Input
Amino acid sequence: MLVGCGRGPLNSPSQGVGCSVTVQIPASGSKLLGTVEARFGSTTRRLVLGTTTIPLSCGQQATLTAAPTNPSTNPFVSWRAAGQTSAAASITVTADGLITASPQFFVPPTPTPTPTPKVRPTATPTPTSVTLDQWLSYDPAARTATLKLVAGYKGVNRGLSYDGYSNGQLSVSVPVGWTVVVDFSNAATINHSAVVVTPTGTSPFFPGAGNPDPTVGLNPGASLPFSFLASAVGSYRIACLVPGHEGLGMWASFQVTAGGVPTIHL
Output
C-alpha cells in the first residue's frame, strides 16, 4: 500500500520526525482486540500497545501484520491506512509523511436487553365470608349473617344462657335487610328455645325468627336451625320462651341497624 505524495521531510534531531507510521490497535473494554507485527528494514517489532509510533526514513517501507487476540470472537476484518482499506491481514506502507494505520477486528453487536416485564400486583380477593369469632360470621356479598347459638353452654347461669352469657351480656347486631341464620342447639339438661322478640314480646317479631313450640322448647342435645329476614330497624331480644327462663336471665340483645356490618359483643 503506497501512501504519501512523493517528498517528505527527513528525520533529524533538528527537524524531528518527518516520516513515521502510527499503529492504533482497537480495544474492547480494557483489552486490545489484537497485536501487530511490524517489519521495517532489518527490524521486527511486536506491537502490543493501543498506540505505537514507529519513526521511519522517508520513502522507507514497513510491513504490518495483524493478529487477533481471540480469533473465534474477534476475527481480523481489514486494515485502514491513510484513508485506504485493505482486507489483507498484512499490508506494506511506504513512509512519505505521518501515516496512521489501524487493524479492524469484528466486534459482536451488544444484544439489546429484553426488558423485564413489570409484575402487576395481584389484587387480594374480597373474602366471601368474614368470621368475627366462634359465634358469628357473615357473607357481605350474600348479605347473610350466621349466628351459632348454644343454649346452656358450659352450664353458665345454671344452664339458663346462650353461648355462655346471660342477662343481655351477649349482644349481636345485623344491618336491616340482611338474612340471619341461627344455628340453634341445646347443650343444657332441660328444654330451651330461642325466639327474636321485642323486650316485652312473647312471639317471634320477624316471620321464622324462632324455633317451633317456643314454650315447650328443644330437647337436651337436640339442634334446630332457623332463619329470618331482619326487615325492621330496632332493638330486640333473643329469648327463651319456656316459662320462667327469660325472667331468670336467659336472653341476649339483638339489634337491627340502619347500615354497617354485623357485630357481636360479649
The mean pLDDT is 88. DSSP finds no helices and 21 strands in the chain.
